[in-house]
Amino acid sequence: MKPILPIVLKTPRLLLRPPVEEDAATLECYLSDRRIAETTAAIPHPYPRGGALDWVAMSDDRWAEGTAATFVVTLRENGKILGVISLLGKSPRDFQAGYWIAVPFWGNGYATEALHRLVRYAFNHLGLPCLGARHFAHNPASGRVMLKAGLHFDTVIPGGSSRDGVFYDSVQYRITAEDWRMCVAI
């Protein structure tokens, strides 16, 4: 795929920017909380020392490969790191959104605001034809974020996701660029 050029995205409260090495310590601190890992299939617990630094380097590589656009979610007013949001995929039709917000910032609408902005970026800037997202069935709050950001429920895949060898139902959401543009026009 073509490289995706790093970009900074803005919302009224947030700045979504590519990760830098200086973010690693804060990210590792947040990721040491088991509650973050329990809501994702890919974040290990305990989070390894130095893992965030490796993740920053991997994020840079994925931008260059065109397989991901990864952003650190920060407060616009002071730059405080709140979490991470990404677009990941190997072809334009299979890109998925993924995100996590640090526990101290849960319940403030930051994930919804960040995902809404990421969807706009996916369709208006990258020209993706569709976008998906999924969550563990035991994390319905993430599904509410997806719905508020404009995605539509697609299906439940029994045992469709796993974590530490345990399989969980995966709840899938999706939106096409055409549907999104129709919603925005309303």
Automatic annotation (TrEMBL):
<feature type="domain" description="N-acetyltransferase">
    <location>
        <begin position="14"/>
        <end position="178"/>
    </location>
</feature>
<dbReference type="GO" id="GO:0005737">
    <property type="term" value="C:cytoplasm"/>
</dbReference>
<dbReference type="GO" id="GO:0008999">
    <property type="term" value="F:protein-N-terminal-alanine acetyltransferase activity"/>
</dbReference>
<protein>
    <submittedName>
        <fullName>GNAT family N-acetyltransferase</fullName>
    </submittedName>
</protein>
<dbReference type="InterPro" id="IPR051531">
    <property type="entry name" value="N-acetyltransferase"/>
</dbReference>
<dbReference type="Pfam" id="PF13302">
    <property type="entry name" value="Acetyltransf_3"/>
</dbReference>
<dbReference type="InterPro" id="IPR000182">
    <property type="entry name" value="GNAT_dom"/>
</dbReference>
<keyword id="KW-0808">Transferase</keyword>
<comment type="similarity">
    <text>Belongs to the acetyltransferase family. RimJ subfamily.</text>
</comment>
<keyword id="KW-0012">Acyltransferase</keyword>
<dbReference type="InterPro" id="IPR016181">
    <property type="entry name" value="Acyl_CoA_acyltransferase"/>
</dbReference>
